């Protein structure tokens, strides 16, 4: 069965962006070592235009063949004309305000997203990448099978949390830790 994997960037204190969700400042910690790891281990986590830019567009998807993102995450690229940001993946946008995506390969989920995720998990294929954001992660917290948390060496003090979920102890087991010279640490947890 496929897993829902929440792959997300965060500060040391658990914020994925400023109060509006802007997170461009994390890119200052991306160095050659980190890029090489990403290209080798999860090339599908780069938007299609970035894959082309770095010359890795021909690399096969290793972990994910489907991406699930909230409206806010999807809309970040719209001003730049990125209407199909992950064309190399099956793309879903969760939104009650977008009736139809501007591209036919982007499907809008307006109903019960947890039910849709359970349906997707039953299908054949690679895992499902929960790309963001905090609201969607909060809605799907009980469906998340894996957390892949890229922690950047900065402390924000406030901002958008990792997930907007009600209090509840949800246990995960540590599966892997990978650190980089830039101070970035990728921690992988699996559902217990």
From TrEMBL:
This is Dihydrofolate reductase family protein. It comes from Streptomyces solicavernae. SUPFAM superfamilies: Dihydrofolate reductase-like (SSF53597). InterPro entries: DHFR-like_dom_sf (IPR024072), RibDG_C (IPR002734), Riboflavin_Biosynth_HTPR (IPR050765). Pfam families: RibD_C. Residues 5-185 form the Bacterial bifunctional deaminase-reductase C-terminal domain. PANTHER family: 2,5-DIAMINO-6-RIBOSYLAMINO-4(3H)-PYRIMIDINONE 5'-PHOSPHATE REDUCTASE, DIHYDROFOLATE REDUCTASE FAMILY PROTEIN (AFU_ORTHOLOGUE AFUA_8G06820).
């Amino acid at each position: 069965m496929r897993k829902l994997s929440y792959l997300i960037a965060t500060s040391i204190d658990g914020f994925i962006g400023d109060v509006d969700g802007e997170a461009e400042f994390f890119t200052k910690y991306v160095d050659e070592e980190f890029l090489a790891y990403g290209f080798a281990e999860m090339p599908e986590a780069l938007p299609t235009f970035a894959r082309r830019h770095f010359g890795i567009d021909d690399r096969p998807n290793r972990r994910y063949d489907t991406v699930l993102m909230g409206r806010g995450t999807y809309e970040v690229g719209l001003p730049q004309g990125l209407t199909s940001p992950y064309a190399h993946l099956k793309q879903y946008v969760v939104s009650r305000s977008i009736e139809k995506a501007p591209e036919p390969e982007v499907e809008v989920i307006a109903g019960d997203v947890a039910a849709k995720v359970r349906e997707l998990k039953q299908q054949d294929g690679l895992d499902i990448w929960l790309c963001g954001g905090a609201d969607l992660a909060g809605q799907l917290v009980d469906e998340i099978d894996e957390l892949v948390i890229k922690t950047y060496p900065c402390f924000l003090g406030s901002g958008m949390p990792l997930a907007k979920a009600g209090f509840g102890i949800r246990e995960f087991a540590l599966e892997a830790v990978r650190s980089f010279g830039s101070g970035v640490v990728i921690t992988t947890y699996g559902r217990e």
